[in-house]
Amino acid sequence: MTYARIAGTGSALPERVISNAELAAKVDTSDEWIAERTGIRQRHIAAEGQTTGDLAFAAATAALQAAGVDASEIDLIVVGTTTPDLVFPSTACLVQHRLGANGCAAFDVNAACSGFIYALTVANQFIRAGTAKTALVIGAETLSRFLDWSDRATCVLFGDGAGAVVLKAADEPGILSSHIHADGGYKELLWNPVGISAGFKDEPNHGLRVIMQGRDVFKVAVKTLDRVVEETLEANNLDRHQLDWLIPHQANLRIIEATAKRLDMPMDRVIVTVDKHANTSAASVPLALDYAVRSGKVQRGQLLLLEAFGGGFTWGSALLRY
Ligand code: UT7
User: Fold this and answer.
1) How far, in Å, CA of 108 to CA of 90, rounded?
2) Which atom of ligand 1 is nearest to the CA of 249?
3) pTM score, whole prediction
4) Which secondary-structure segment (H or E) carries 9?
5) Which of 37, 116, 132, 253 could form a disulfide with 80 if both were Cys (CB 3.0 to 4.6 A apart)?
6) What class is the 176-321 domain?
């Protein structure tokens, strides 16, 4: 049996950090409100001209270096993103060329905040099937580009960044299972109402913005994440106490705490980066994973549960032995 194992991780964050206090000087909010309701204290925001592809390339370079893998060895690049540099070519193609990995398969996956779990699932299937031996999986976003900076309900929540993993075929797990789902019936609880085919609006930023019914999203997210972690444990015949680390999507500390409670995990076994990164959508899980690895928290051989929930709705999880 062939499995996909994480050979290395990497991440990249824009230099510019915006604190809650800085936002409070621009919109009617406060550090107290943001920190209490979300756990967010700051976010990184891309510089003018700095793209999702730039961040993805930097994260990929770090992951390849950590894995000791040369770009020429890559068979597949999958980028989870909702904020690609261009309509086409895909951000994966742009990153591929900059890495010098020309010739391998490369494409983007749009599953909003679940983008990395979706991309990881796709790459895992390629490796399990024997179609690829080495895959680069990236979650990268510059959501700041389409935030409405006058809307306090959304602009305080998001940040920019990228995270990446190199997967290699191995005889031992590796990724034990992954579970991805979607329900398009929830489209209008969390969405951007314009696009190439639907058209743009005669509004600031052509109508591009995040529209979210926060309270409703919160409720569905908690329930849905409960279900997907149960599904993952059951599929692997695993007791929740056997998990070493929970590496959740970083949207809201209260959602993270609810999932941890469900798993009976103390918060010192949960990776939390939402305070420093805010919600970076598809980049959030791989950014948290890379932080966990580089800080020495996550060790080889440990059992990790990754999960995410986002617009669509989309959601998913992955259980892996690091
Ligand atoms: O990653 C994709 C998935 N996304 C999520 O998982 C996000 C899920 N939702 C959430 O995280 C939370 O619902 C929010 C953080 C977005 C909002 O927190 P909440 O505790 O649900 O607040 P709320 O929306 O119920 O708003 C409470 C009050 C309202 O005022 P009133 O009506 O009580 O007078 C809002 O107008 O807080 C007000 N408010 C703010 N006040 C200060 C909303 N945004 C702000 C703000 N600063 N930035």
Assistant:
1) 6
2) 1
3) 0.98
4) strand 3-12
5) 116
6) alpha beta
